[in-house]
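Researcher: Please predict.
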Amino acid sequence: MPAAEPAAPRVAAVVYNPIKVDIDLLKSTVATEAAAAGWGASLWFETTVDDVGQEATKKALDAGADLVLAAGGDGTVRAVTEALRGSGTALALVPSGTGNLLARNLDLTLNNLTHSVHTAFSGTNRAIDLGVIDIERAGGARDRHVFVVMAGMGIDAKMIQNTDDDLKAKAGWAAYVQAIVTSLRDPNELHLRFRRDDGPVLREKANTLIIGNCGSLPANILLMPDAVIDDGLLDLLVMRPGGVLGWLRIWTKVAWVNGVVRRTKLGRALVGEHRNDRELEYSTVTKFTARLTRAEEIELDGDGFGQATAFSAWVEPRSLDVRVPA
């Protein structure tokens, strides 16, 4: 009987943002780690202004990639994830941006290229939830997107709209300070009718609405302390600050109580369970629909997505595999 043909080596594809990465170093590191793990030569797909990652990822899947490495910022990761949805192909993260939000929430290495690439080829898969959102525009057009961290309206979406991209490239998250100040001067509130899961339709007036799949942000900010990335739930946060003092109270709760005190077992014992109040209200949903009285800015995973007049968001439990250290 003739000997069986040896199995073809697995092949990874790298979808990378050329502005965010040192491509020569990245190619060298990927080649070394792939060979060490017994994988074949990797495929390379560059993102562009017109394609931030979705089409590049589809090409990688069509080429037979067994694994897709996303090397870029949060926008690249979100776009790659959107194209991977439903494919069964795992995602590996090579953090290369300012926020690195998904990697941060998975406690992955943020500034060690070799470790990140080694994890891609020698790690194990962790299944996480995906957030999916249908956005309705003025005029009735709809478009569907994925988010892995959070979707938001209000101050966070306005802050992103007001951020200077050139300053962000030079100063990182410090660039958001000016944008926050500008956004806080905006007196407009969100006026919406909404529904949690199959509950009744309610009315709400708020400054900010955030739907989160996970809750950690840069600068040690724990925006949603109870959010878990694989619990099959989305966490809903509504902010209703009463003027400048209200914002100061919210900032104290988010940056100090959530970001510092609640990160330790002793701290959690001291402050007790989180309690909602008028200014900061948390809940969990599997689906959330809303319609606004006027078009409002919306953001997904830290990128602006224009204006929405309505949206429907839901969770797809444990529907994406992400490579983590073995």
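Model: The two ends are 38 Å apart (CA to CA).
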